[in-house]
Design goal:
hypothetical protein yedk fold, 7-stranded mixed β-sheet, 5-stranded antiparallel β-sheet
């Protein structure tokens, strides 16, 4: 499961992925976790629009505004038939901008990103709950089995959309069979990862040094 990611690039770098539209409300963060607000792109007319949503899907059929944040990932297999995802995957798809994500393996956190350190647009689903006059927008991140680059971390990976698929993913008119065909892992030899400090686990900690590589002290036993 993926329960942490970052989006720390300047707004002008992100705007290149939004047809240079104004990024109203854009905020940078090194530590985005479930139930935290984050920037996502949705389709508004024929152009992408940046909006703010809560990470952790609250389905539209929810009767109360109670989000426990447990629907922060949507595994690709069977997504079209699961009650919480079957309408969003058909009509309410989003792109989640990120410059890296984090996974924990053998009690050690790792930062995972593209080898060229480019901004990724990750496949996601969103939904809106309407209660009285208030709209609550939330989203989930799609995941698939890892490619060869990340297999040793033993975690699912997000789906980084290629530029040729971005508009079709956002378009609510794209047929479901074409949507499902986009749910696949990235090609090999594009991803890197390195260890980072466990300060990431503090939800309120949000600083650039989260991205610093963690070099564990070596002992005589490590050299044997």
């Amino acid at each position: 499961m993926i329960d942490r990611f970052s989006l720390s690039v300047p707004a002008d770098k992100l705007s290149k992925h939004a047809q240079n539209l104004p990024l109203k409300g854009y905020t940078r963060s090194y530590n985005i976790h479930p139930l935290k607000k984050a920037s996502i792109f949705i389709s508004q007319g024929d152009k992408p629009q940046l909006v703010q949503g809560i990470w952790g899907l609250l389905p539209h059929f929810s009767k109360e505004m109670v989000n426990r944040g447990n629907l922060y990932n949507a595994y690709y297999e069977g997504v079209a038939s699961k009650p919480s995802f079957r309408i969003p995957v058909r009509q309410r798809r989003c792109l989640i901008p990120a410059d890296s994500y984090y996974v924990k393996h053998d009690n050690q956190w790792y930062r995972v990103m593209k080898r060229d350190r480019s901004v990724m647009l990750l496949a996601g689903l969103y939904d809106v709950v309407q209660l009285d006059s208030y709209q609550y927008l939330s989203f989930t991140m799609m995941t698939v089995p890892p490619n060869r680059d990340l297999a040793l971390l033993k975690h699912h990976m997000p789906i980084a959309m290629c530029s040729s698929n971005e508009s079709e993913w956002l378009n609510p008119k794209t047929p479901l069979n074409e949507v499902i065909a986009m749910l696949k892992c990235s090609d090999n030899y594009q991803w890197i990862h390195y260890p980072i400090k466990n300060t990431l686990e503090m939800d309120k900690y949000d600083a650039p040094d989260i991205h610093d590589e963690f070099m564990a002290e070596r002992t005589l036993f490590d050299l044997v």
